[in-house]
Amino acid sequence: MNNLITSQKEAVFLLGLILGFLILFFFQPSDSKTQKFEELALGNENTPFFAENNGHKIHCQDFFDIANCLKDIYQIDKNNDIYLWLGNSQLHAINQYKSGQNSASLKLHKKLIKNNKYLITFSQPNANLQEHYVLFSYLVNKFNIEKLILPVVFDDMREDEIRQSLKGVFTDKETEELLSKSDFGKRIINFYRHEYSSTNNDYVSIQENSENFLESFFSSNFKLWEDRPILRGQLFNFLYQFRNWLFNINPTSTRKMILPRYKKNFEALLSILDLAKSKHIEPILYIAPIRSDLKLPYNLNEYNSFKKELFSLSTKHNFELHNLESLIPPEYWGTKDATSIKKKKEIDFMHFQESGHKVLANKIFKVLN
Fold first, then answer.
1. CA 291 to centroid of chain Cα atoms
2. According to DSSP H, which parts of 88-196 are helical?
């Protein structure tokens, strides 16, 4: 009986996939070309904000804009101590944004710059600790970092793999050598080596030439091909909503730990701490804020074990760990677009309004001082 129900659900999901593609093919929005994928993923309630200060880029995302942040770092006063803040979309998304509002990264940057401390921030949606590790390994070779500020997000311990926009680290010789000094770093390099290796130059040349030809031909003759990254994002968003509706998943649904991924991310955290120690960088970690006036979308036993393990680790490795899970008042949190095709607005457990960004910036400032 259970197998029959599962088969029926799979059939409905496949039908949704076909339906979603047809809807996107025939009814794509006329302004879709101006819509970025990260904005689509965050929804209309959350606005990405990658800050600048006095013309200097101080908050970047990945290898698409990393050069802008590095270029400006090289131009700053050499007397400034440089702090690095890594994180997920909580750092760059402002819920219910209004013109003129700023993120926590910019607010903290302005506070620190008065004391000759220069803050640079990098964040990606749902960033996991493996991604933080490889990006940190890249950045420590580019400039001298005094302190590392790192949120540890329980939900992101469910994430795995390193996104395409960060894999540029693997083409950097210094980073590869640094990663190779740890067992975990070696495993990451070996796992992703085939994706950036160019041992067969003739094959790569043929592949690149054919891809360039097809790209040029289809872009010139088919408008839909030109818009395919946006269509792909819209399709995945529709399927995500359709799946949640089919299986009755909502923001308060319990998201259980995925143990193999949890262990990999925890191992990445240990590698970050070891690397920071070897480079004489002070790590300051915090348990990320979450809306705590409602039922958490976690298995509480797993979540409490996670926090206990972190505090045990902080004692063993002698680093600062702050529990900021209840830092942001309930009224500073917002809503997000529906994650199901039936609903309108839902509770957002990860992103808060500008007032919440101010609270976070002030708290981190006090911790640093």
1. 19
2. 104-113, 129-139, 173-179, 183-196
Distances, alpha carbon 292 to alpha carbons 249, 287, 297, 328, 350, in Å = 19, 13, 10, 9, 11
For residues 68 and 60, the answer to whether their CB atoms sit within 8 Å is yes
Q: How far apart, in whole angstroms, are the C-alpha atoms of residue 274 and residue 285?
A: 14
What does the pLDDT look like over 6-31, one tens digit per residue? 555 555 555 555 555 554 444 444 33
The mean pLDDT of 153-168, rounded to a whole number, is 91
Q: Write the Ramachandran bin of 221: left for phi over 0, alpha for psi from -120 to 50, otherwise beta.
A: alpha
> CB neighbours (10 Å) of residue 234?
21
CA separation (Å) from 78 to 105, 117, 235, 312?
21, 10, 47, 37
Per-residue model confidence as pLDDT tens digits over 44-69:
788 999 999 988 999 999 998 999 89
**Euclidean distance between CA atoms 311 and 292, whole angstroms:** 20
Q: How far apart are the first and last CA of the chain?
A: 62
Residues, the chain: 369
Instruction: Answer yes or no: is pLDDT of 343 > 50.
Output: yes
- Look up residue 116 and give its amino acid: N
Global confidence as pTM:
0.77
Q: Which two tokens stand for residue 136?
A: 């940190």
Closest among 44, 36, 14, 19 to 229, alpha carbons compared: 36
Dihedral sign, Cα of residue 152, residue 255, residue 268, residue 167: negative
* Structure tokens, 103: 């993120």
Could you give the CA distance from residue 169 to residue 131 in angstroms, rounded to a whole number? Answer: 10
pLDDT digits (tens, 9 = 90+) for 97-135: 999 999 999 999 999 999 999 999 999 999 999 999 999
Residue matched to tokens 């990264």: 105
Neighbours of 333 (CB within 10 A): 24
Contact 352, 290 (CB under 8 A): no
CB 271 within 8 A of CB 184: yes
CB burial of residue 192 (10 Å; 0-12, 13-18, 19+): middle
Backbone angles phi, psi at 326, to 5 degrees: -105, 20
Q: Residue 368 in contact with residue 285, Cβ under 8 Å?
A: no
**Which residue segments constitute the domains of the chain, with CATH numbers given?**
50-197+270-334+351-368 (3.40.50.1110)
